[in-house]
Amino acid sequence: MNLRTRIRIALASAVPTLLALPVLCVLAAVGAMPWTVLLALPVVLVVQATATFARVNRVL
Fold first, then answer.
1. Considering its fold, how many domains does the chain have in total?
2. What is the pLDDT of residues 44-55, one digit of tens each?
3. 3-state DSSP of 1-60
4. Are 53 and 6 in contact (CB under 8 A)?
5. Tell me: the pLDDT tens digits for 5-50?
């Protein structure tokens, strides 16, 4: 599998996490969740995409 395809799969795996962003913003705005969770979101996306990128190479 080529590099471009692996990158696309890794980025596509992070899309569901991005879809949760509006919900997290609303929860933080009403005080049901600390704002620091939103600050951790970019780190989570990078870790998730990196893990998927590495796994795709091993599986296929």
1. 1
2. 999 999 999 999
3. CCHHHHHHHHHHHCHHHHHCHHHHHHHHHCCCCCCHHHHHHHHHHHHHHHHHHHHHHHHC
4. yes
5. 988 998 999 898 889 889 999 999 999 999 998 889 889 999 999 9
Which amino acid is it at 3? Answer: L
> Residue 29 belongs to what domain range?
3-59
pTM: 0.74
**End-to-end Cα, the chain, rounded Å:** 7
Please identify which residue in the block is written with the tokens 């996490």: 17
Give the whole-angstrom CA distance, residue 17 versus residue 25: 13
DSSP state of 2: -
